[in-house]
Amino acid sequence: MRSRNLLLCLAAIAALSACKRETPAPAATEPASVAATAAIAFKDAIDPADFAEHVRTLASDEFEGRGPGTPGEDKTVEYVRAQMQRIGLQPGNGDSYFQTVPMVETRADEHTAMDISVKGKAHTLAFGTDMVIGTRSGKPEVKVEASDLVFVGYGVDAPEQDWNDYAGIDVKGKTVVMLVNDPGFHAHDESLFEGKRMTYYGRWTYKFEEAARKGAAAALIIHDTEGASYDWDVVRGSWSGAQYDLPAADDPAPRLPLQGWITGAQATTLFADAGLDLAQLRAAANKRGFKAVALPAKMSVDLKSTSVEKQSRNVVGILPGSEKPDEAVIYMAHWDHLGRHADEPGDNIYNGAVDNATGVAAILEIAEQFARLGKPKRSVLFLAVTLEESGLLGSQYYVAHPLIPLDKTAAVINLDAMGVAGKTRDMTVVGMGSSELEDILKPIAEKQGRALHSESRPESGGYFRSDHFNFAKAGVPALYVDAGDDLIDGGKAAGEAAARDYNEHRYHKPGDEYDAATWKLDGTMDELAAVYAVGLEIANGDRWPNWYAGNPFKNARDKMMQAK
Ligand SMILES: [Zn+2]
Q1: How far, in Å, from the CA of 179 to the mean position of ligand 1?
Q2: Dihedrals phi, psi of 514, to nearest 5 degrees
Q3: What's the CA-to-centroid distance between 59 and ligand 1, angstroms?
Q4: pLDDT tens digits, residue range 12-33?
Q5: Distance 539 CA to ligand 1 centre (A)
Q6: Which domains does the chain have, with CATH numbers?
């Protein structure tokens, strides 16, 4: 159905829903209710079995956990390409559905030991059980010998917060040891930073970036499950096997020779042998004016790694706009996951059904509905990015090499790890209070009987842990939604139990598998319908939604749009 006349097309949608659901057609002129009606029509048109089939395929053992640079990648990107072509999307990168992403694959020797002598007493930490370590330098051998250890609290230098854990100390050539999350977190002091909500300073990526800027030879983060919001198994699993990076040319930020994590138990022992109480030091690190503490300890590591230059692929399909094809809305989901860990016994395929076969299935279903309805005014780009699990690298590369100029990109909608626990009375907007995209979403969700709220665990830093963050950093308004946790069937208690079960037993574990018996997709379809309607409204409109005043990314957007 070709719809140049929006009203005609919307009347058709309204008619569709009316015949099936007897819902009274809303006044078709007011965008919000038009979008809300579109959401209902979407739910009528979509078949959850189709969605499930995409997930079943992408999360099958045959796809081997969709590791970048592996046969699992070849199967995955070919599947997504074929589906985009079947749906009627055009190639999004000239005549190709692929955007090549250069990457460096590094494998650390996991027999590497870390020697730490404390007041002359030797400690040998083993890879995987006591610590994990790696290098982003691309060097085959990195040797650090007798490097002085310095405890730098949270390792944060935040001028706007008037906080600098590196004040008055030179850590060049030294090994900094630090805590995960934000100052204030472990003391539950909500007066510091953004209280319970983790800022980017709390993310492990920031801590290594800052230590590199300070010229440290190595940086070690002390793991604690509460602070990291995941257990040691997740750290070990993510740091074992192949690690991926963009080549230095594509990611010029300074890099540490060595970086890694140590277990809380190991850190406590080391500090005790140094005559220090880690718990006391941690309390001090949560106070303004904290001063870094040099430890009577030295670290030595001889890390051998193999590095190979490889390529991965973002998959891109486009539905060209009818009136403003040079402007676009982007739907994005990462296709990659943790692959197969051949050296692990038993089930060693990290299938990544929730994370993120659901997101890829979602953008394919949304693309199908857009294609079914004919061309909107603006183009709609469907972007399945690679290397998310390795540090949001596929989207970082896309933002550095956009296929649609960023100042022509009206919005990005990111889907990562959708809810499969059933219908809810609410919907989560990660980082809620950020942009006008939420104003478009709100009436749509309300029409679905759902209230919007921010993520229930802001301390876990969800806003920095998926691909929309790279677009946000560049200024492009980005929306990242998640399932609600107030289940129709069982309420908040059931929702929290489902989230806990996923986090503890399946997040970044081989157990993240598709299960037709327990998955409830009615709630998932609501999520899809809502984000579909948001994109539809923007794709058929003239608006340039912006960040709210005071949002850290607004400046970049305003500058970008003024320069146009
Ligand atoms: Zn994910």
Answers
A1: 24
A2: -70, 135
A3: 13
A4: 444 444 444 444 444 445 566 7
A5: 26
A6: 2-96+320-421+454-481+525-542+552-562 (3.40.630.10), 106-306 (3.50.30.30)
